[in-house]
Design goal:
globular
Length: 226
């Protein structure tokens, strides 16, 4: 695969964190395979935030590996559940992935170097429905949620749903981002701050390096609360 980097390739020596493979028990003898990228400059004396993505470790078509490497490089654990979009997938099958995310969460929260009070979720397109279910059924467990071009209704806004919300979309998804300020107002009434952003000249699947760069910065700002 071709490497997409929001930083380009001009005279740059970019260090990528190693991606590890883990297995989280799902029950009945089954395990959820996931990819884990540990934080850069790891220290056993520190605790780090954890970000769980409903994604595969991909450089393209959607550059989830780019975001994951950037977040790990800034000082976070990043776990990717390996989700792959299948057009014939039913809603019931998709919602089954909530168990996969929970299995990864349960496996990693026992890590003494993970700060269980700083766990974030992110998803893209149709699989944002999984984040909605996790927020509804396990409220107050997640420090923040990040929804990119959400293909499902936005999560119900109620107190203790989460601490922070980030939502983005491409500029050609007007039907989607027109909902953002309305949703922001509803969240505000529940005491939950929301940031939303429309990527200029961008479609549902981002390809421009500038779009990747913008999204990376938004994610880092949320996780590290800048």
């Amino acid at each position: 695969s071709r490497l997409f980097s929001p930083w380009g390739f001009q005279d740059m020596n970019v260090h990528f964190q190693p991606a590890l493979v883990g297995y989280a028990p799902l029950g009945n003898g089954h395990n959820e395979r996931f990819v884990l990228i540990p934080p850069a400059n790891f220290s056993r004396q520190k605790k780090y935030p954890l970000i769980i993505g409903m994604q595969g470790y991909d450089w393209e078509i959607v550059a989830h590996a780019t975001y994951s490497q950037a977040l790990a490089g800034s000082g976070a654990y990043v776990a990717l559940t390996g989700y792959r979009y299948v057009s014939s997938q039913t809603l019931e099958e998709l919602l089954g992935y909530t168990n996969n995310v929970l299995a990864v969460y349960n496996q990693l929260k026992a890590n003494p170097n993970i700060d269980a009070s700083r766990v974030y979720l992110f998803a893209f397109s149709s699989n944002t429905v999984v984040i909605n279910e996790l927020v509804k059924d396990y409220s107050s467990r997640w420090r923040g949620i990040m929804l990119f071009s959400p293909g499902a209704r936005l999560p119900e806004a109620k107190e203790e749903t989460t601490t922070r919300v980030l939502v983005t979309a491409g500029s050609d998804e007007e039907w989607l981002w027109e909902q953002f300020p309305i949703y922001q107002e509803v969240l505000c009434k529940a005491g939950i701050p929301m940031q939303w952003y429309v990527h200029p000249d961008s479609a549902h699947i981002e390809r421009a390096q500038n779009t990747m760069y913008q999204r990376t910065l938004l994610m880092e700002n949320m996780v590290f609360e800048k």
